[in-house]
Amino acid sequence: MAGLRVQTLIFVLVAALAILDRTFVEANFDKNFIVTWGKHHIGTTNGNLRLVLDKSAGSAIRSKVAHLFGTVEMLIKLVPGNSAGTVAAYYMSSTGTAHDEIDFEFLGNSTGEPYTIHTNIFAKGKGDREQQFKPWFNPTNGFHNYTIHWNPSEVVWFVDGTPIRVFRNYEKEGVAYPNKQGMKVFASLWSADDWATQGGRVKTNWTQAPFVAEGRRYKARTCLWQGPASIKQCADPTIKSNWWTSPSFSQLTRSQIDRMQKIRSGFMIYDYCKDTNRFKGVMPPECSKRQF
Fold it and tell me: Residue 172, SS3?
C-alpha cells in the first residue's frame, strides 16, 4: 500500500507540473521559439534575443506553441539612433485569411524624433482598428515591458505595467472578437519605409545599418491552445490554471484607468474611432461603446 501511495503521489506531482508547464513559460528563446526568416540575423546571449536588420534581410521568430487567453510579456529595447523606416513588431496571431491578431508595432524615426507605438487588433480577418502613441520615455536606451493581456471579455495593452488601450468583447452586439483561434507569439525587425516613418516620407538610411533590437524576459501565462476543444476549456473561469481569471487583470482598477486616461490624453496621436474621414462618417460599431 505504501508503494501504491508513493506511485500515486508521484503521478499527481507529474500531472501538476505538466499543467504548470502548459500554462506558464519564462522563455529561453532558443528553446521556445523558432526562426521564421533571417536565420543569420538572429542571435541569443544568455537567453536574451537579438534581432538584426540590414539591407539584405530582416529577422523574425515565432513561438512553438499557440495560446488562447492569458498574458504574454517581453522586455524590449528598440533600435537606437536613426531608425527611420524600420519596424520592430511584437504580436500574437493565428493563421489564415480569417485570422485573429493583437499587435504592438514600433515605428522608427529620424534621430531625435520619437518612435510611434502602433497598436491594432484583428478578429476574423478584420483589422483597421489602429491606435498610436508617442512614448513618454526613451524606448531605445533601456528595456521596457510590453504586455498583452487577453481574456474572454477584453484585450488590454500594457506598457511598463500601465494600460494604454482596451478592446472589449461586444460579440453579442455584432462586433467580431478574437476568442476562437489559438495565437502564437511573434517578434520581428523589418523595413517598411514606404509607410512606417511619417507616412513613408522618411526612408531607411542603410548607411546606419545594421539596425538591432533586443528582447529579454519573455513570459507567457496562458491557456495552451490544443484545438477547438480548447475554446470551452480555456474560457472556463473555474479552472485555476487559466491565468486570465486573476482579478488584477480581468478587471482594471480605478487607479489603472486613471493612469491610462492620462497616457491617452497626453500621448495618443491617432485613434481610428476619431477618424471620420477614413470611415466616411460610418464609424465602426465598437466606437460608440464603452471600452474601459
Answer: helix
